[in-house]
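hi! just following up on the protien thing from before. the input was this:
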Amino acid sequence: MMGNVQFVQSLYAAFGRGDVDYIVAASDPNIAWISNADPALLSFGGERRGIDGVRSFFRELAANIDTDCYQPREFFGGPDFVAVLGSSISRSRGTGDPFEEEWIHLFRIMNGKLTEIRIFHDTHALVQAHFGGDIHSVTVAPSEAAAELQQ
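and the predicted 3d structure came back as:
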């Protein structure tokens, strides 16, 4: 029987070869799949439940992101969890803009199945690449925001 870290490493290997079925088979039927990306901005963000949720996450990810380099680098395992620090170099399919991000994934494991994953993206890099250009150029300046609050 493989340990939790080896189990999670096998999930990354499956992702690397495009084997979503392996990841689905390793998932509990009631899995919680949670991304910190805002689903109103990035369709693969937000919270999904169950096997259909896992499949929809990967469909949305593939429709929006081309990944050139995906590197899980450090694995920290516990009795029912694994935390992974990593980085990736990708490109938005919508704009063609490249982006690099550091990320952390938290996996919960019970009875040899993945019961929860929490994905923490560099959402600034993702949104900037997805919408193109510097997203700060379209935000409200602090003085304008303060003026609106005082009205």
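Residues 50-64 form the longest helix (15 residues).
DSSP finds five helices and six strands in the chain.
cheers
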